[in-house]
Design brief:
With 447 residues, this protein is an alpha+beta fold. The chain has 2 domains: 281 residues, FAD/NAD(P)-binding domain (3-Layer(bba) Sandwich), CATH 3.50.50.60; 151 residues, Elongation Factor Tu (Ef-tu), domain 3 (Beta Barrel), CATH 2.40.30.260. Helices cover 33% and strands 17% of the residues. The protein contains 12 helices and 17 strands. A 6-stranded mixed beta sheet has the order 6-2-1-7-17-16, covered by helices on one side. A 6-stranded antiparallel beta sheet has the order 10-11-12-13-9-14. Helix 1 links the parallel strand 1 and strand 2. Helix 2 packs parallel to helix 10 and helix 2 packs parallel to helix 12. It is globular, with a radius of gyration of 22 Å. 48% of the residues are buried. Bound molecules: flavin-adenine dinucleotide. Flavin-adenine dinucleotide (FAD) binds next to helix 1, strand 8, strand 15 and helix 10.
Length: 447
């Protein structure tokens, strides 16, 4: 008889972990508080909600997060199954209809006979048994205090921001146009072109605009990967033109030329009723967002489904605290998973949930893991990074090839980077197939 595993939080990591545990025929008590209380970034009652962008980023395996997706697919990830089913067009990226995506996962979890869902807020980490804490970067209240008490003074945090979403039919298409950069992906994006005067006017108003209060933090710490647009703008007049407002590869059909600057809006739902302002995460006050973003041609009368918001993003000091199995060094049946471990991003959080679920399952079944993914895979490289005691300045990290074991041999020619990444992908997927085989053999036995 295997033991029951408690999973706290049905976000990306917790849902993935619970689903994998169930595949081993292990009973799961899954706690999710949304029905009684939601964080400021969560809006729906469904599980695995995407709190900001609907893009899960690159889908090609020569890119680290694209490869991580493929690793998860091979391993039978529930989140990737949902993402592939809910896909909406987004050029080379994998973007999803967020409601369809979360709805699919919620249904699977709620109808799983091995998973008992408890719709309540957990205030204390259970003292006994196998537990996975996957309450995300917005963990707060009594549970936050209890985690800090359990871990000692190892808390870290920084700011994070979400981009606004506007109604498609409120965008003035006599000024905006549909296209993808360099024509890759057809008409996937709505583009709002700006001439030099329009850009400079927008830039000046943006850097002077009023920002929301962030008084509950002593010091503003901004994570580079999710920098508010106004912070980026304040770094220099042209910074945005090399970032989210870069015009390269976009030709305005009205002028036949590349604009001076260009905002892209990405489809956010399958019905194409919502579009998000790509790269426009912001902490401007809401009326200021309408005023300043309304200076962009095409958005003058934009109606907002959701305004941009700023949140804290809490993570633990994993290199000091966790093993590469995502378990606490001082209590090996207590696992942490998701963004709070210092992996950064939707897919990275999913991957850590998968591994925490896997190692928790091995513990519940009382067997040594038959396969431990190493740094020659993306999923293993992230586990190695967050648990490496030699990492002194720990910052949350997206999946990237810098964390993956070097590929021996020399790569030459103009495609050397692509060729090297393709070789890394081939090596990694070979290992992941071995991992999947070991998993499936155990799962077959459990059934
Ligand atoms: C504002 C913001 C924007 C972000 N935008 C992006 C983005 O655009 N792209 C990207 O790749 N990543 C983004 N991230 C980072 C990260 O990928 C997401 O936060 C991701 O959702 C993390 O997954 P998770 O499973 O760790 O946590 P979550 O998805 O947040 O899941 C945690 C779950 O635990 C539940 N919970 C919390 N406390 C309790 C409790 N005490 N009892 C019971 N249940 C509880 C919550 O309700 C939630 O459902 C963003 C993060 C934030 C904060």
């Amino acid at each position: 008889m295997s033991k029951t595993v408690t999973v706290i939080g049905a976000g990306l990591a917790g849902s993935e972990a619970a689903h994998l545990l169930s595949r081993f025929d292990i009973k799961v008590d899954l706690y999710e508080m949304k029905a009684v209380r939601k964080s400021p970034a969560h809006h729906s009652d469904d599980y695995a909600e995407l709190v900001c962008s609907n893009s899960l980023r690159a889908n090609n395996i020569e890119n680290a997060v694209g490869l991580l997706k493929e690793e998860l697919r091979v391993l039978g990830s529930l989140i990737m199954e949902a993402a592939d089913k809910a896909q909406v067009p987004a050029g080379g990226a994998l973007a999803v209809d967020r409601d369809e995506f979360s709805g699919y996962i919620t249904e699977k979890i709620k109808n799983d006979p091995n998973i008992t869902v408890h719709e309540e807020e957990v205030k204390k980490i259970p003292e006994d048994g196998i537990v996975i804490v996957a309450t995300g970067p917005l963990t707060d209240g009594e549970l936050y205090e209890d985690i800090m008490k359990t871990l000692g003074d190892s808390k870290l945090h920084f700011f994070d921001a979400a981009a606004p979403i506007v109604k498609a039919d409120s965008i003035d298409m006599s000024k905006a146009f549909k296209a993808s950069r360099y024509g890759k992906g057809g008409d996937d994006y709505i583009n709002c072109p700006m001439n030099k005067d329009e850009y400079l006017n927008f830039y000046h108003e943006l850097i002077g605009a009023e920002r929301a209060d962030v008084k509950y933090f002593d010091k503003e710490i901004v994570f580079e990967g999710c920098m508010p647009i106004e912070t980026m703008a304040s770094r220099g007049e042209d910074t945005m033109r090399f970032g989210p407002l870069k015009p390269v590869g976009l030709v305005d059909p009205k002028t036949g030329e590349e604009p001076y600057a260009c905002l892209q809006l990405r489809q956010d739902d399958r019905a194409k009723t919502m579009y998000n302002l790509v790269g426009f995460q912001t902490r401007l006050k809401w009326p200021e967002q309408k005023r300043v973003f309304g200076l962009i041609p095409g958005l003058e009368n934009a109606e907002y489904y959701r305004m941009g918001v700023m949140h804290r993003n809490t993570y633990i000091n994993s290199p000091e605290l966790l093993t590469n199995r995502y378990s606490l060094r001082k209590r090996e049946d207590l696992f942490f998973a998701g963004q709070m471990t210092g992996v950064e991003g939707y897919i990275e959080s999913t991957a850590s949930g998968f591994l925490a679920g896997y190692y928790a399952a091995m513990r519940a079944l009382d067997i040594e893991p038959p396969f431990i993914p190493g740094s020659d895979t993306v999923i293993g490289s992230m586990a190695a990074y967050i648990s490496d005691p030699d990492v002194k300045k720990f910052v949350p990290m997206n999946a990237n090839f810098g964390l993956v074991e070097k590929m021996p041999g020399k790569f030459k020619g103009k495609n050397k980077k692509k060729d090297k990444n393709a070789a890394i992908a081939e090596r990694s997927l070979g290992k992941i197939c071995e991992f999947a085989q070991a998993l499936n053999e155990m799962i077959d036995k459990a059934e």
